[in-house]
Batch of 2 targets.
Target 1
Amino acid sequence: MKPKQAQLCHFLILFNIISIHLNGITARIHPSSPLLPRQFREAPEFYNSPNCSPIIKHSDKLNNEDDTNDNNLVCSDEAVHVAMTLDAAYIRGSMAAILSVLQHSSCPQDIIFHFVASASADASLLRATISHSFPYLKFEIYRFHDSTVAGLISTSIRSALDCPLNYARSYLANILPLCVKKVVYLDSDLILVDDITKLAATPLNDDTILAAPEYCNANFTTYFTPTFWSNPTLSLTFADRKACYFNTGVMVIDLERWRTGDYTTKIEEWMELQKRMRIYELGSLPPFLLVFAGKIAPVDHRWNQHGLGGDNFRGLCRDLHPGPVSLLHWSGKGKPWVRLDASRPCPLDALWAPYDLLKSPYLIDS
């Protein structure tokens, strides 16, 4: 073998070794792969400011299916209860969202997280991942059985919207303990840059069930099919209310009133009708609009600067809505961690990056 050929051969061997090594790292941090606890950094611990009142008065054992956990959960009405779904595909976004909530809260030790995971998920791995990065966090994980909604889900315009866990927000009143009377629901693809206590304090008057930012300039008719609007019995659903679009990724929910009114059943009834006559195209959003639009407590738009993930088809870059910002929400197809990993970020993805707890590939490998 000639010297130049030998050098080329050695180069190719070295190149292949490096490629295999890097591919192994990529596989371990690919969004579709389960993420291990050690792949995330431990977040700093955040403490209450001096003006926070001590709210821990009593603890109640959770009555849920996961009896392997001995943790107690505070049921104080003064605590800020936050509900989120949790799965391997979106865990990176969830970790960033948790960090942002704690970092900007004046009373972070008074926040209790309620995570809902699919019953088929590895709850022990999810618990270990959260505990590794947030060893001081007050939280519980609840199982959500896909069979609860399997027969009710209709195909939508994007397959990710058809995931059963995407519908868990409709069942929070059934999943969370009865002692939890009010909860702030948050999607996993957002970050807060303001104190969540302000959002949780949104008043729910006149038997209002939930609060959320409304967008009355949006064309409300586009969220339902011509079949819906051409049927007088159906279209009259909105006759006596000023129905506006709202995004279900950020909601303040009165769980006591929800349980009393059995609103989960009302949502399921619309989903059953959808299976028969196709009255909308999106996933879990339209049933919420059908039940609650025009009957919710308004929240300032700053608490859901949504749509940063672009539309449901291409996920193109979008700008912020005019006005102040308390919460940035990458709803839509494009997620900031995916675009950052692909070196094709949108300008606003740089605002999400500081909350990313995923270690670099080299730290993971070491």
Target 2
Amino acid sequence: MITRAQHGIFKPRTILNLHTSTNNSISPLPTNSVNALQDPNWKLTIQDEYDALIENKTWELVLRPSNTNVIRSFWIFMHKRRSDGSFERYKARLVGDGAGQQPCIDCGDTFSPVVKPATIRTVLSIALSKSWCLHQLNVKNTFLHGNLEETHAPRAWYKRFLDYVITLGFSHSVSDNSLFIYKQGEQVAYILLYVDDIILVTSSDELQDSILHHLQVEFSMKDLGSLNYFLRISVIRTPQHIFLSHHKYAEETIEKAGMSSCKSSPTPINSKAKLNITSGNPYHPTQYRSLAGALQYLTLTRPDISYVVQ
């Protein structure tokens, strides 16, 4: 038998690459910043966050004071999704590690007021009854807009926003500090603020355009158009109704609890259960609190479960 090798004939060896990839594949959440920088999608997102920090002059480089507790920072990565659960964009944020703060020394009232669920339902009901415009905005790099006279960015951002909308003729509600009201003759507008998410309700298109212009000149904002998805709530509007749905959020909560395969029940509580200290498996307090908080938030669109949750 005469082989090719005996005649000096060699065919190049082709190694098949069975790995398939598409431009639409989603990069998984990185475990740390080093891994993130090795992925072009996350690297681009990190660069955008860094550019925003530099543009807003977020920090000044100083020598470390000997008597100061230093709060370290770390990266948070997440996938932003639309109301139908489809992927929208990558999001990376550089945040301070609040666990390193010392109560009454370098942290106090660090929270920012947020609009109440009852306020959201009330304002949307008014808008529906009067056929007013509903618009949605998102503030880019929210806390970077705060003028820091202290070390608490959330409250600084709220005060900056409050001070500006007052110059436009707004005042905040007595019952809800995150509801801002504008009234000039027949012109009426409401702003609902939840950290970086904003609902703008106006009595006319002209007033809406005017307020949008002023807000976008003062702050870096993303115009999301007509209200359709707010705080993980899907909003469907018809001439007669506004339907609020937490469907995707409810599914995620059930999955987080490990109950995706459970059967539904018309009464969401076991009235015959008898609990004692030795029955069942121990449940981690952190996970329990997380699920309880998730169910409390779900009552915004599902008041029928309020009694059981509370």
